[in-house]
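Researcher: Next sequence.
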Amino acid sequence: MALLLCVLQKRLNKMKFHKISLAIRFVFKQKGYALINIMGLSLGISACLFITQYVTIQKSYDKQAPFPERTYRVTYQRWTDNGDRVEFASSSPTIGQTLVHQFPEVEAMGRAYKAGGVFSYNDVVLEEELAFWGETPLVDILGFNIILGNPDSCLSVPNQAVISKKTAQRIFGQDDPVGKFLIRNGTENFIITAVFDNVPHNSHFKPEILISLANWEKRDPQMFTSGWFYSGFYTYIRLAVNTNPKDIDRKIEEFIASEFGEVLAEYKTGISFKLQPLLEIHLQSHFMHELEINGDKQSIVMLQIVAWFILIIAWVNFFNLSTISSIKRYKEVGIRKVNGASRYQLLYQLLAESAIINLCALLLAVVMLEIGYSPFANLAGIPVQRDLYGEIWFYQILCVVFLIGTLSAGIYTITGLGGNNLSECLRGTSLGLKGNTVLKKILVTIQFIIAISLLSATTGVFKQYNLIQNTNLGFRLNNMLVVKVPMVGDQSMRNRFSVFVEQSAKLPSVTGTTYSSVVPGKPNIFNRGGIHKQGDDPTDGKNMRLTEIFGNFVEVYQINLIAGKGFTGNPSEDRNNVLLNETAALWLGLQPTEEAIGTLIILEGRPKTLVGILADFNQLSPKESIEPQIFRYPERYQGYFTLQLTDNTSEQTVRDVSKIYSSLFPGNPFDYFFLDQFYGSQYLLDKRFGLVFLIFSLLSVILTIMGLLSLSAYSAQQRRREIGIRKVLGASSWSIIQLLSQSYLLLWLIATTISIPLVWLFLNSWLNDFATRIQLTSAIFLPPLAVVLLMCLVTVSVQSMSAANGNPAESLKRE
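Model: Next structure:
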């Protein structure tokens, strides 16, 4: 390194850049300060780059669409006068065509509906959940890149299919799939007309297979002309240039009022359709029927603030260390002034030194980014592959960091050096920098505020996630094997469901088997409205989630039955009965007691007898509110088998269950998962956010410690004569340590007073999105305050001890 610097200096001297050469020599002459400066600054810069990359990806969702700023998803809201309201990310099958026909501002419209199914080609069979009914315009509106086939007519007629590149490779290998047939659920044939490139990670809609919606429309045309109260159709439109989406919302409202106003008023019901900007879906949309778990805008904004907070801490350290390292240069400055050096020349020299340190820190930060990006990407759940050097923001941050760091540190230092009295400079004293001590303390107070705030916020975030994960969910979660029901077979297949339940329950490690249309952790998109007690006004009916279950569902899942006896296990009898959860019973005006049992409940226009009320359980994460649910015996068989096991890790049990499944349901893939892992996937985004937040909060503490080291060393240097005099007069080392530490305790108290209200306001706002939430108590704030205080005292004490144990003769010999 020394040889390299020597060669570089000689080269710069030959090129007449002797001032830069001098700056390099001085920077690396003080190796300790240079190393701390460069390392601290590079840590701050790299942290800012890591977080900004994460935030940028989160904000980049759906920008691959051709005209994302003019593209919208149509959402659907339905409510009754009694306050019952549901909001869907999907819409009715009718609204799309209505918008195209009624409003010329709508340039294009495409719909999708989740189809799923088992797809086969020759001997290849796979179950694909991300299969959708779709239309040709959808491909263009959302920007799916067609790499094989014709994008203009790929889904224009029935029995056509478009598949992703990944699906094409899974089914056809390296063969061209265009023109070949896929069989869905053993009954429907679809010819592949096109292949689209794999949908990027930053898209809220990631289909693997699209099949012609025209099939459904041909089979049930009335659904697409009169199905205004149905949902499930994801409808996307593109508006003409300069069209105000609020105008379209208003026109839709007027259209609904004119067409259905009287009917809606009669039934005390309302419906509306709103345009939701495509670019807002990922971070701001949390409706029913979302295609995936979306992110949280507030969390993203918080992380971006953290990024700049960490950079500010690093800058503060850099400013302070730059000034401290310049204390040793007073004689040099005095001599240069005597020799005629102007303030401009001094500034130039100091800016050059600052620029060198900043440049080294930038280069080291980029190296850290290269080394740590893959582990960070895996932790944060973002793509490992990226074109970071092709991003404009990357160079913008580097330029801003370099300019601010160079100019502010250089100018900050010259205000002390250049403004001192010439005689004091020649004597090597630093009295002229005393004013800067106040500014340094202000900056360190800011560091304290940031460190306390980040640690307190991190404590609150982890306490909240810990509460969610340890909440009593109301059902058995562990040792539950879930198997997807078959989809390929004739009508007799449904009769074999009971056979599967009976045979699998006989396995040694299986203590019970049941069926349900949905399992915990899976959003229940099966919604029914108009549910009411017999004799009540039908217009006061309620919307509820409808779940279909076998009679032993409650026993297998160990859900508490708080009233009634539940289903009998006799299908002919159970078909006339229903169960409610506690929330649903209260919604209908029933008390969850035995007196409510026997009440007739109108479901889909037919009376059902209430035979049991279940204690509320968390169908989804405790983050979500518990919704009213009604349970009935299956009328459609699309869902899951659940097996209660004695051992969650029994591979032999899985093999045994697979054999029974394959023998009863040939031609269907055996697809299974363990419920605890599946349910826990809801927390994945929250866990990743919490870990990212924790890592960078700890980094802020490390940088704050470095700042304290610099300021305490600086303060000790400024007061070395005072310390010498006190020691000559008999002061002990401990009394000197107390003296030097007092001011830092004051800074800590000031930071505490400012940071606690800020964190309380932030956490209180953030927690509003959680149905189950922690209380903001002192337990959230006291540990971070103690950590920062301890860190402060230890750091300052080390520096103070060094000053207190110094020889007073050294500090007094010039007096």
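Model: The radius of gyration is 34 Å. Residues 1-5, 11-17, 430-435 have pLDDT under 50 and may be disordered.
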